[in-house]
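Blinded run. Sample ID left blank on purpose so nobody reads anything into the name before looking at the predicted structure. Input follows.
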Amino acid sequence: MTKKSSKKKKHVIRKIIFLLLLLLVIFVALCFITPSEAEMSLTGASGEVIGLEIPALVPGEQVIEHTGYTLSYNEEAEQASWVAWCLTKDEVMSAVVERDDNFREDRSVRTGSATLDDYRGSGYDRGHMAPAADFRWSAEAMSDSFYLSNMSPQVGALNRGFWASLEGMVRQMAVDNEMVYVVTGPVLTDGPYETIGENEVAIPKQYYKVVLDYTEPEVKAIGFVVPNEDCDEDVTHYVRSIDEVEELTGLDFYPLLPDDVETVVEAEVDTSLWSFREYSSSAVSEDYTPTVSTGAGTGAKLQNTFNEVFYELKSTIFSALGITELARALDLM
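Blinded prediction complete.
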């Protein structure tokens, strides 16, 4: 072998070693920044963290799942103490199902839900907690939103006024942030309450709504507390931190959040990080095509697919090397 060819061979070897080292560094870095095994088990196909919207369970209350949302039924008040759902940009922007006004009892409630007769002639609206307009992506979800377990006696001026506007703002928040995790319901800690109907459905004095954006670049949360009356103040007048809403309601929101994240996002709220304009379907670009009818945006979907593929790759590599437990200990998977 000539001196020239030997030098060339050493140069090629050095390049290969450098490339392998670079690939190793990239691989280890990706191991740290991609979801862990536990996090992967909580991530849905559309990128949402499964169950992140669900508050800590309330002793003695029945948790009921319907298409698109989950609720916790308070038998004494004959309504849900909380209703929770994840709302994505695609769900908002693929709204095609028309409202059907299919109000009816919820047969899933073991103790029996409020009835149409309870509201009839009461002077109060059957106010949606999870709004029908959030579920126009599915005929089944739209229909399920009209169970009376998802209703609360609201003053008409609130239900058709500020409350409807706030719901529109939350839809815009979902569009702006790809997806949001929403919990809403009546405040049931400031009684006693007047009631309506034979089933004595409590008339709340206040309602709350909390919203979490758990997508990068900035995780944030915001809460609202609204009196059950005609509200004419600017929306920021009703803004509260999540901690404040928890103290008022006695509920524990977003318990699946990592403790360090939960402490920060629930303590304070920065209104400058949120849009308070209402969503308008007329503002949707004609070029916009939802990735799926009930999923997250394209970016979240691609990110989740990559995470799944890379998780399988690193699992295979660590298993072949016999260092799976060491990798878990080092938080590499």
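Unblinding after everyone has recorded impressions. The domain at 62-283 is CATH 3.40.570.10 (Extracellular Endonuclease; Chain A).
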